[in-house]
């Protein structure tokens, strides 16, 4: 998704994702995970969450949703390309649900930011 957004002309954004090489992914406890996510979400205008079926079982996703809602950040659920099954949990909490399409994602960001 970052590649899609980076290639979109006339669209600037800041990626507040917790970097995948951050040790919190493998060595952090639940509290550290919560704080790492919170420290990113507070700066966001919107929170984008992939709505793949795996999301229903991710402790990351649940924390992202909880924190986004606590801070009143709109949630954009992005349905993966070609996906037949998607996360009910993510979609129930989303302010907008879009397909894996640059224009749909950018449009939702602009509408909700």
UniProtKB/TrEMBL annotation:
<feature type="domain" description="Thoeris protein ThsB TIR-like">
    <location>
        <begin position="6"/>
        <end position="84"/>
    </location>
</feature>
<dbReference type="InterPro" id="IPR015032">
    <property type="entry name" value="ThsB__TIR-like_domain"/>
</dbReference>
<dbReference type="Pfam" id="PF08937">
    <property type="entry name" value="ThsB_TIR"/>
</dbReference>
<protein>
    <recommendedName>
        <fullName>Thoeris protein ThsB TIR-like domain-containing protein</fullName>
    </recommendedName>
</protein>
<dbReference type="InterPro" id="IPR036490">
    <property type="entry name" value="ThsB_TIR-like_sf"/>
</dbReference>
């Amino acid at each position: 998704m970052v590649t899609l957004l980076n290639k979109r002309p006339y669209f600037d954004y800041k990626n507040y994702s917790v970097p995948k090489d951050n040790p919190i992914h493998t060595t952090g406890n639940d509290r550290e995970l919560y704080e790492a996510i919170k420290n990113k979400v507070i700066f966001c205008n919107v929170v984008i969450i992939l709505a793949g079926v795996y999301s229903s079982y991710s402790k990351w996703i649940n924390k992202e949703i909880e924190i986004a809602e606590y801070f009143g950040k709109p949630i954009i659920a992005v349905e993966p390309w070609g996906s037949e099954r998607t996360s009910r949990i993510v979609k129930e909490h989303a302010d907008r649900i879009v397909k894996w399409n640059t224009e749909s994602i950018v449009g939702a960001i602009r509408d909700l930011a």
